[in-house]
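Quarterly update from the structural biology core.
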Amino acid sequence: MPAQPEEQPKAQETESQVDSSESPPLGFWQDRIVEAAKSEWVYFGQQIVVIDGDQESIPHVGTWEDDDDSHSDRINQYWRAVGKPRLSGYDCKQPWSAAFISWIMQAAGVPNDLFPPSRAHRSYLNRFIANADDPFAALIPRTIHQYKPKPGDLICATRGKIKPPEVFEELQDLLYSWRMHCDIVVETSGQTLQAIGGNVRNSVSKTILTLSPDGYVQFTRARPWVLIVENRLE
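Predicted structure, tokenized:
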């Protein structure tokens, strides 16, 4: 795991415009998060999942969670980040995507008070929503209709087929009702977004999806994206 730097991140001042095309260039903390996610993806054999409309394919299969001891042990490290040291990749019925995100944030050096390690995505998402009115909030939930994602952000989907919230006020009700899954955005280019997440088809996978013509995440049946966490750490 990379050593934590001495510098501590702070939140950028809030701007009224949330179009990420107007945001500053990718910063130090976003770089660390993206690089940590890419490193784990490489370790797990670079599995790729492509979402094209409502269809999903896996053009390249990587190493799965229970393929061997070393990769199972790696997932044990993710679980240790959220206080579950007895779980590993061989515990295939235990969803580990939130543990993966928590481990990545720790590996990148993000303090726990800014990103609390969580066994379930809804735990940290509820905290971010509760603090969303803070002008210095570092991690801000957005609906998929109001914000264009950038590297270092999280994109989150429900594990059920529902209509995505139109306004921010609907996000909290959604989190109380549905289980979630989140990935880390690692690249955007034109209408293509790439995101890396854990427990995606039994591995650390890179998901490639098509954005709308104006750059927004699109809700699909294959992956019902409903919110984005804007990363304003600097």
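Helices lie at 28-43, 69-80, 97-108, 121-130, 169-177.
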